[in-house]
Structure formats: structure tokens, C-alpha cells
Amino acid sequence: MTTESELELVSLTKRYGETLAVDAIDHKFPAGSYSCLLGPSGCGKSSTLRMIAGHEVVSSGDIVLGRANITDLPPAKRGTAMMFQSYALFPHLSSAENVAFSLKMRGQPKAARLKRAMELLELVDMTQYAGRLPGQLSGGQQQRVALARALITSPAILLLDEPLSALDPFLRLRMRLELKRLQRELGISFIHVTHSQDEALALADGIIVMNGGRIEQAGTPQQVFDAPETEFVARFIGGHNVMKRDGGAIAVRADRIAVTRQGAPGAAQLEAVVRDVEYLGTTVNLALSAGGAGDITATLADSIFFKAPIEIGETVFLSWSPADAHPLAA
Fold first, then answer.
1. Residue 298: which CATH number?
2. What residue ranges of the chain have pLDDT lower than 50?
3. Closest CA relative to residue 16, chosen from 59, 53, 50
4. What pLDDT is attached to residue 85?
5. Can you give the pLDDT at residue 268?
6. Which residues partner with 71 through β-bridges?
């Protein structure tokens, strides 16, 4: 993979009047990678994506793609393509015509652009719907057409703004696999905005967690999930307990907490009362109240839990390996 599609953000900033939406962020997206910008609403992730696409004017800072500074280029000249959350298909054009539209704007002959459109529809398994209007397609089918349309210009980077949020849960899982397959096959970079932790963990080579216009943490899914650096990341990525210990805060994964009915003499442990039991199929979550340590969740394998089920109201003892306690920055 060449560095021609490596993308670098340098002190990238976006202001809307007095509001600072993106606060001088720096990040390198490796060529040919699948990256997810992850965070809650209003954290700056969509503004960042739209600046990369050229749909928002950069307040200050730079966007560098390969060796070219693309900060001030119009969207069509950047080497990026954007797939919008709403799909934004033309209702009066067929699937094939929608896909071919950007080639039409570039003056390509009709036969050539429709031939290329059919190749892209085949890539997303939609050739049999080439003649249908968007209104005759399901949400998932419309999404595939929008994807083909974004890819027809052969971009170096595909930008996806919450592309799965409008789909039902079953279709969302299927399209997740499709997006990963397409990214692998095409070998281009995908940058995907989402507020779903599961989506980011399942899809990304790199996760960039944003909060308040800044990058809180960036790394592989395993790095971000296993070793959150801040309290915000630990809470937002999920699956962790944040506890105040020895004047600081630590994060311990819920599935790394051992639960026993008998306390072990001399062991580092917490006494807790079971407030709720939630059966999730392969696992069981215990919601626990641990006095000054606060509310804690412990996740047990169903096979372990049902050997000796724990009831609501029971007092139990919690412990974990020191290696599983990650200190958090303020």
C-alpha cells in the first residue's frame, strides 16, 4: 500500500461563531485502513468528517492527503467520496443512473458511464435492481446504491457518516460485514463516523474516540477497549467499571471481576450487594452496589453463573487481578 492515500490532520479546527466544535486535532490515518471516529452527539466527529470531505470550511489547520494539501480544494477535487447518512439518492433516477451521475457530470459518454455503474452495482450485489427507482428499494438496498455511487469515482478515501444508523439491527449486522469486505477488496481507506461502540469495535483497524471536540484516545480496538486512558473513554466504550481507588481512578473490565460468596482472608476485595441480575444468553450481568466504591457491574459466563445462581439481595465479594486494573488520567 502506497502512502498516497495516507491522510493527516494537522491542528484541524472548526468554529461555528463562538462555538469551538473541533479543537486543533492531530491524527494520521494510515493508507488502506478502516478507521472509526467514535463519540457521543456533539463531540465533533461529523464536523471532522465533513471538513475532510470539503463540505465544511476549515477554520484553521490542514488536511493532507498523500503529498497534497487538500484543505481548500472543492469536494470533487480531493480524492475523497462521501456517503451520507440520508443516502441522498435522486428519486427520479434509476439505481444505475444514480450510480453513474458523477460520471455524467464529468462528461463521460452514456454507454461508458452506465457500463461502469453496472460494475459497481455488481460489487454491492445490486445488478438485478439497476432499473428501479429509489422509492422501489428497501433501506438496505438504497444504502448499497449510495455506496456504489460513492465508489464510482475511485476515491482514495471513502467517508461514511453514520451509514448504518437507519437500518434495523439484523440488516445492520449484515451491512457491517459487507462494508468490511468491500474495504478489504478495494484496498482503500474508509473513515466511518459512528456513536456505536459495537460498530467501531467490529469494523475498525483504528478507533479515534472524540469528546468535546478533542481526541481522547486513538488506537486499535483492542488497545482502546483493553486499556482506556481516561474516565470518559472507559465509560463510553462500555464494559468497564470506573472506581475511585487510592486517590485516583481505575478501570476494570466487567468480565475480569471475580464474584464469590465467601471472602478470602487478607485478599484485596470489595463487599457488595446484588441489586439486579440480567440474563443475556451467553453471559449474565450482575448489577452490584459496593458502598463507597459505587455501582459495579460484573459479567459472568452463563455456565459459571448457573452452577450456583446468585440472587438479588445477596452479599458477595468482588476481586480482580492487579494487571486488570488500568489507572485513568483525569
1. 2.40.50.140
2. 1-2
3. 59
4. 74
5. 66
6. none
Q: What's the CA gap between 228 and 316, in Å, rounded?
A: 27
pLDDT of residue 3: 59
Q: Which letter does DSSP use for residue 6 in this model? A: -
Alpha helices in the chain (DSSP H): 45-53, 95-105, 110-123, 139-151, 169-186, 197-203, 221-226, 231-237, 302-305
In the block, residue with C-alpha cell 480544494: 73
Task: Supply the pTM of this predicted model.
Answer: 0.88
Q: Copy the grid coordinates of residue 159.
A: 467517508
Taking the C-alpha atoms of residue 51 and residue 12, their distance in angstroms, rounded to an integer, is 9
**What does the pLDDT read at residue 170?**
84
What does the alpha-carbon distance between residue 238 and residue 130 come to, in Å, rounded to a whole number?
Answer: 41
The answer to whether 79 and 70 have CB atoms below 8 angstroms apart is yes
Residues 170 and 286 in one domain: no
**Range of 291's domain?**
251-328
Q: Is 180 exposed, middle or buried (0-12, 13-18, 19+ CB in 10 A)?
A: middle
Distance CA(33)–CA(6), nearest Å, equals: 9
Grid cell for residue 219: 488506537
Nearest to 222 by CA among 206, 241, 239, 243: 206
Q: Which three cell numbers stand for residue 105?
A: 457530470
Q: At residue 261, what is the residue type?
A: R
Please give the grid coordinates belonging to residue 145: 446504491
Whether 254 contacts 239, CB under 8 Å: yes
